[in-house]
Q: What sequence folds into this?
């Protein structure tokens, strides 16, 4: 099993699925709901368990070429780390600054980190996408998004 990284990944995913299912079973049940709020999380948890078992069962020996493909260049690791930190900051500032402002800032920053250099398109997408999502959730679906420092 030491030569089969897919099996280690499958075991890790199986453990994550187990914890996820334990948490999914702690969701409250509503008495008058036909399809309750816990159906999707439980279904996804069981799907992850099934896929983990399939991955474990279909693991094969890794060739030297596949080992070489697994090495990640240092530049890509830096970009991955910056992206993870940006997502964490986005989540942390969502309540403070609000959905609209935080999403615009996130969508302005991340494409630049990933190497996209058409700044006009980036600005247009950031503002239009964030505005459409905010309008759709707030006014069409009546779902309140974090307002933050914005007066609306």
A:
């Amino acid at each position: 099993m030491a030569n089969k990284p897919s099996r280690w990944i499958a075991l890790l995913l199986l453990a994550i699925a187990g914890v996820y299912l334990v948490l999914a079973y702690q969701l409250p049940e509503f008495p008058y709901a036909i399809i309750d709020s816990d159906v999707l999380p439980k279904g996804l948890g069981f799907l992850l368990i099934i896929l983990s078992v399939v991955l474990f069962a279909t693991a094969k020996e890794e060739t030297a070429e596949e080992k070489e493909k697994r090495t990640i260049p240092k530049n890509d690791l830096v970009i991955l780390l910056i992206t993870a930190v940006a997502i964490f900051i986005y989540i942390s500032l969502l309540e403070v600054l609000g959905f609209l402002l935080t999403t615009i800032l996130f969508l302005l920053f991340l494409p630049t980190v990933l190497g996209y250099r058409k700044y006009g398109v980036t600005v247009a997408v950031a503002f239009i996408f964030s505005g459409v999502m905010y309008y759709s959730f707030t006014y069409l679906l009546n779902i309140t998004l974090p307002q933050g420092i914005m007066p609306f």
Q: What stands out?
A: The chain has six helices and no strands.
